[in-house]
């Protein structure tokens, strides 16, 4: 289910002939000499590549690639030629810097936007190819040796609440069988991965406000669904709005135990469904439609979010119903985050759902927020809060 794109630039052959090496140096020097107005670099770059220059070269000290150099130069044609020749859009150097960030830092805003578009385009194409491959495999059990793998990796960071495992299903399984620890401010798993942290409370308040913003309540009924209880922050805020019904889906046994201990199943109008959302939907456990839906799980990736979104047209009551989700997609890299936001918006639009982004200033989270945590899942200053509705 998760996208398996694990090509890394370091996998290229270390054995490069002297001629290839020399031509690669010439290509790199040429790219470094470009300015935004250098005319027609395509033919020169094409000539180096046809002479054996290594498109996938990676500097042994800095990890810089030809695309980083071209992006810094601001020459759009050079960037386009390299991408067209098969240079991955999502490489990072040894400091984790993407080509988009390089272009942005150098002040090439238009080029940055084009790189975002390229990322979206490539990911959609690969998504379609992968789906076709999966469908083929489903129809005819394939000989493993004949299976091809996509050349580009979806960045490991293109996930909400990122984990070191790229397979969401693997992570989900190991996560759901691991024990969790609650403190006043955090919910963590056995590997010190933060499942939920209280610094998100202001964001959860804003999400909830957006969910209730269109209601005619208390003159009419209001039915709300939340997927993923975590610290119960969003559910506590939802309760303060006194909805008619409040359905919560939660999959982890430790979280469920805490919910029961805290009496969530006894609250008026609250229904707790102890299940993965995937199973709840498959087993028909959701028997009504909702005026508002919030989605915030853990250990799942873009494909899981996409799968949930496919159910939205059947889950939302009508055009005045609101959907939102925790937008932690690639939350530690602005370039990948921008690609992910564009992808999710286009995906939702295809399902007949429009997205409005509310920009929220998160500011700098101090390092102490992450003390004891295995990794940061958020480091951007601005949070793009999605408010989604069925197109009227
Ligand atoms: C980030 S927390 C939710 C935080 C919550 N929004 C809050 O305000 O505290 C994610 C929750 O989703 C649950 N979860 C993860 N995968 C799930 C799935 N497939 N179905 C249902 N719940 C899931 C986790 O156990 C965890 O409790």
TrEMBL record:
Ranges for the ANK repeats: 62-94
Which GO BP terms, alphabetically? methylation
E.C. number:
2.1.1.-
GO cellular component terms given for this protein: cytoplasm; nucleus
Q: Which residues form the RMT2 domain?
A: 166-392
Q: Name one GO molecular function term.
A: protein arginine N5-methyltransferase activity
What start and end residues bound the annotated signal peptide? none
Quote the PROSITE patterns the UniProt record gives: ANK_REP_REGION (PS50297), ANK_REPEAT (PS50088), SAM_RMT2 (PS51559)
What's a Pfam family in this record? Ank
Q: Where in the cell is it found?
A: Cytoplasm; Nucleus
Tree of life domain:
Eukaryota
For the region Disordered, give the residue spans: 132-166
SUPFAM superfamilies noted in UniProt: Ankyrin repeat (SSF48403), S-adenosyl-L-methionine-dependent methyltransferases (SSF53335)
Provide this UniProt record's keywords sorted from A to Z.
ANK repeat, Cytoplasm, Methyltransferase, Nucleus, S-adenosyl-L-methionine, Transferase
Would I find Transmembrane helix among this entry's keywords? no
Give the main localization category: cytoplasm
Say which family it is in: Belongs to the class I-like SAM-binding methyltransferase superfamily. RMT2 methyltransferase family.
Instruction: Outline the subunit composition.
Output: Monomer.
The job of this chain, per UniProt, is described as:
S-adenosyl-L-methionine-dependent protein-arginine N-methyltransferase that methylates the delta-nitrogen atom of arginine residues to form N5-methylarginine (type IV) in target proteins. Monomethylates ribosomal protein L12.
Q: What is this protein called?
A: Arginine N-methyltransferase 2
